[in-house]
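User: Please predict the structure of the protein below. I'd like the answer in structure-token form so I can feed it into my own downstream comparison script.

Assistant: Understood. Taking the following sequence of 152 residues as input:
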Amino acid sequence: MQTWTWKFGLLFLILVTMSGKKCCVPNCDKSRADDVILHVFPNPDKDFNRFNTWTNAIGGHVSSLDPHTVFDCRRVCHLHFEPRYHTRSKRLSPNAVPTLHLSGFSIERRPLRDITVQESNDNDNMRRHQQDSILMTKFKKWLLTIIRKDVK
């Protein structure tokens, strides 16, 4: 029993230390061996909101782990940060958030909507509203005539 516990402890230690040597973003296989900078998560004790922003952006198993385990053992490679967050010393600016190459995270870029089309839609909606109010007025008059007939 002691041998199994010792082997399990060793395996756990290897897994924990190995996870700090590669990027924890799902489907990213970059590691220190690839000569990529790996960044530490924000400290959850000092800046919990920023830490949550990172874990929510990355998703995957990271969001289900204990915050201190993530801070101590997980890393995010430099490739997941926009160039505007990089400093000259290859560090990250204090407001950096991972936004690039995240699985399940994409912003659909669509061309701007033509507002002249919207104006014509607004005119159509206004006409429909006027027609509805005319119908409602006619319905009210009809209903009142029926009610008056029933009262007499």
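That's the full token string. Residues 13-18 have pLDDT under 50 and may be disordered.
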